[in-house]
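I'm curious: can you give me some protein's one-letter sequence along with its backbone structure tokens because I've never seen that pairing?
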Amino acid sequence: MQIRPVSSTPYNFQPSFRSNSRIVTNKDGNIVYRNTTNFFRPDLNWKELGKFIIEKYNNSGKVNIICYACSDGSEPMSFAMLLNENLGEKSEKFLPIYAKDIDDTIIYMANSEYVNMDYSDFEEINKFTNGNFGKYFKKPMGGIGIEYNYPVRINPELKKMINFSVADITEDVNNIPSQNTIVFCRNFWPYIKSGSDREKLINNLALKLKNNCTIVTGRYDDTVNLHQLLKEKGFKTIKGLPNVYESKQ
């Protein structure tokens, strides 16, 4: 099922992250959604997010991580690498990350052995993995392009950390575990067709996420005032961590 935008959605907003910039339109040529993404998007403080998650779930058993609107997998792979670099074998309780998207084409691409990236992705990956790009990807012999995307092979160890599938969060919300769960639901809220549907989804998330849960959103979501809507439903902001919220229980 596609989540369609309304005409008032601010499509003049141009996301700065774009190592994958696939755009999906309807039969009239109107944008339905974008699969725009890259590794370690700059609208999160990834270093502090990693510290927060590790501390918050230090005494927890199995932790569920679900990444909706995962696109080509750049984002869940980013978080998997971050956890692995900081925790090593102890990161296993967070894995695999369940990455989901409504677009079966992008999930087909995500399940392949390659991911598109440009040189900025290469730099960001090295930055957050202490220079361990080769631990997670096989660098092409010809290098990675500065201006153009290039398919880069994903190492099997990283592939095992992510489980990709097709799902629509508005329906799949009922399958989210109610405790020890981290939900990435980033940069797709403006594509939901109406304010009432956004509120319904937020309400369902609030009802579902009960004990020791976290929601992670994005900068693009600010264009539909998601921050205020989450606060109204009882989600608490985290000092020093924009776009990260804790459940009220």
User: Anything to note?
Assistant: The first helix runs from residue 46 to 56. The mean pLDDT is 87. Residues 173 and 205 are 7 Å apart (CA to CA).
